[in-house]
Amino acid sequence: LYARLALRVTVVLAGEYGEAAGCREVVEELPEGSTVKDLASRLASRYGGPFSSIVEPGHDCVSRDVILLVNSTTVYRASHELKDGDRVTIADLLEVSLAGG
Fold it and tell me: Which of 78, 83, 68 has the alpha carbon at shortest distance from 15?
């Protein structure tokens, strides 16, 4: 059985994430029930580089060096379930701190 691609999320890529992907925004289609971890894995396999360290290996948490927002709300758990139409922003904490954000 193939999972139906049921959700579409817009991913805003700030700083090094945008540079690694070659764009500032991508739209990803994921199976229903997908989580932040699933999205991070998809992005890591597609773009590599900094995307590989969005989620702490072996833990249910977003890396301390990453700011990850879902619809403008900070998300810390990699198991956070995404919904159709979500807007996910990924930024490097250090870059945001240096920029005064």
Answer: 68
Q: Hey, where are the domains in the chain?
A: 5-99
97 backbone dihedrals φ, ψ, rounded to 5°? -65, -45
CA distance 72 to 25: 15
Superfamily of segment(s) 5-99:
Beta-grasp domain (3.10.20.30)
Between CA 86 and CA 9 the distance in angstroms is: 5
Look at strands 5-13 and 87-92 and give their pairing. Answer: parallel
Q: pLDDT (tens digit, 9 = 90+) per residue, 13-44? A: 999 999 999 999 999 999 999 999 999 999 99
Report pTM.
Answer: 0.88
